[in-house]
Amino acid sequence: MLQGDLFQIDAEIPWEDLGNGIKRQCYGYDEKVMLVKVKFEAGAVGQLHEHHHTQVTYVESGIFEMTIGKEKKIIKKGDGYYVPPHEVHGCVCLESGMLIDVFSPYREDFLPISTI
Fold first, then answer.
1. Given this model, what pLDDT does residue 15 score?
2. Above 60 in pLDDT, residue 115?
3. Residues 82/59, Cβ–Cβ less than 8 Å
4. 10-115, which class in CATH?
5. Phi and psi at residue 56, in whole multiples of 5°?
6. What is the pLDDT of residue 3?
7. Residue 115 DSSP code
8. Coil vs helix vs strand at 73
């Protein structure tokens, strides 16, 4: 069974620099679910993309222009969104902040090859 650590300690989880003002930390996961923190600098762009995972996201801080399908909204701290599988989505960070993503099933493309 694939499983992350039972406890995730922020100071012990390395940030993966994705470039262009975006960094990611992968938290707990198993085959069915994964929690990920994504930090954005102002002006950073989460390119439009799609994947087979269901995604639910909470805005921990910052302001984002979020596009899901044909809809666009400004979202801020305390807001959230749902992305169904294969729906095109992406964002522009208007004020630096952090998104907390939950994926089902887990994003195997986010894990080092040695853990898959």
1. 96
2. no
3. no
4. mainly beta
5. -125, 135
6. 72
7. G
8. strand
- At 73-112, the pLDDT tens digits run 999 999 999 999 999 999 999 999 999 999 999 999 998 7
- Burial environment of residue 107 by CB neighbours within 10 A (0 to 12, 13 to 18, 19 or more): middle
- For residue 49, the one-letter residue type is H
At 93, which amino acid appears? C
Q: Is the distance from CB of 23 to CB of 38 less than 8 angstroms? A: yes
Give the DSSP letter of residue 4. -
- Give the model's pLDDT for residue 52: 98
Q: Note whether 66 and 93 are within 8 A (CB).
A: no
Q: Are 45 and 92 in contact (CB under 8 A)?
A: yes
Nearest CA-CA partner of 24 in 106, 105, 100:
100
Round to whole Å and give the CA distance between 81 and 59: 9
